[in-house]
Task: structure prediction
Amino acid sequence: MTPATDRRTPRWRARLLLAPMVAWLVLFVVAPTAILFVYSFCERDEVGRVVFSFTLENYRRVADPVYLRIFNRSIGYAGLTTLICIGVGYPVAYCIGRAREAWRQRLLLLVMVPFWTSFLIRTYAWITILKQEGLLNGLVHQFAPGAAPFELLYTPTAVVIGLVYAYLPFMILPIYGSVEKLDGALIEAAYDLGAGPLRVFSSVIIPLTLPGIAAGTLLVFVPAVGMFAITDLMGGARVPLIGNVIQNQFLQARDWPFGAALGAVFMGLFAVTYWLMLRLGAREEETAA
Amino acid sequence: MPATPTASPRWRFPSGIRLLDLSLTGWTALVMVFLYLPIVVLVAYSFNSSRLNIVWESFTFAWYQHVWENGPLLRAAQNSLVIACVSTVISVLLGTSGAWLLHRYRFRGARSLQTLVAVPMVMPEILMGISLLILFATAGRGLGFATVIIGHVTFSFPFVLVAVQARLKGLDPAMEEAALDLGATPLQAFTLVIVPCLRPAIVAGALMAFTLSWDELIVTFFTTSAASATLPIRVFGMAKVGLNPMLNALSAIFIVATAGFVVFSNYLKKLSR
Result:
């Protein structure tokens, strides 16, 4: 029996049961997003209260070179983080996926623990290492007592280290999922047909694991663009990213309409990325099937 | 393809594959070191009596005692626990019933509902945070426990739903039919037959919901009041100020708890298989 014929139209009671979830999604996902867009066209008065009106002023301000540069920088940092995560994580995911069962479980567990550990704590771990009076400088001081202490924290490098460290498990796990599903026969067939390891990797393995890469990119790139906590902790206020600016508009500057406009633009960016990755993942899954 | 001894090994194991395997293993080991070294250092220095991380002075449990005696931190931990428990319960109820209804029935808008459910899982947390903040402000609702829990349920319950849905796909539809044929009402068939079958997925989803809530910072940041501040909020505040061995101790507790939690949930998964 196919599940399709088994599915029935719900009766009123089933509809009633569905109501809480639909209501929740409408109230707390759809409505807030809609209100965010409404706010982005509003103004604020001198004390920071929101005045309902229609103005494009907020979007004009978003288009200001200062903010465009911040957007670009955020996308650049997130893109770099994603690329490093793919480069570093792919071989690891592949190795785990191809390992023997007992080892696979152990290695997977090893990736899971950081995956589940709060990124805040893992970021703090790097602060203790990179800070001027931190471990790295301590080590340097021990071996070269004369060397001047250097500051690695609050640099762009520190921000990228923090982001990669936080998001790496989120790249490894989905790619692992794809690698695990890889059909060994296809790889053998490629070898049989005379392809070298490089060719097999680029024309068989990569396309087949593309859904995993797409899922990982979605899990790394999108949150990395809007992340403000890691950038706050690792970059100080020196490298403001879009997340920091939005957060600032809502909590310190109290210019909600402008913050909403920044958020709306970011939302558009997110929607485009989401759609692209969904298509990429879906298409490859189709051709693989 | 069966590996027969007559098959030429030349193409099956081209030269260099072995080398590639070795370097792959080496790389994985290196990445594991990268993932764990900072954590190990963090835990080790939580036992250092010096305030500064530079030098190792002597072994002490003092920082753990400081954590234990820190009122605001304990309160925050308590808040986190309450919020995580409540939002896990709501998430499990919403997620399980939603998964079942989406799986079982065919109706207009089911596909769009499925897409909509996925949105909170991938939506950047900061966007969810600010839009909820605006919603609560518009509704004239003060921030506090209720608003934090609403935020947490919104991003947790889809994970429960997806976990349960995956399990439902492998479920034999004959089970429910048999129950119905034997005279059970649809509700009885669901609670007495389907839910027990779904238990592993529900447990996995609940564990996920709990951890997500327990660790969450960004959405909470925008939806909390000072009174309902969670542990991550306090930790963020402390980490911003600078190095503090108390944070090392607190982190060590967290890490050990998380590791235990992961091993435990793995064990649960194995049991339920």
Summary: Chain B is about 75% helix and 0% strand. Residues 72-272 of chain B form a domain with the MetI-like fold fold (CATH 1.10.3720.10). Chain B touches chain A through 86 residues (CB under 8 Å).
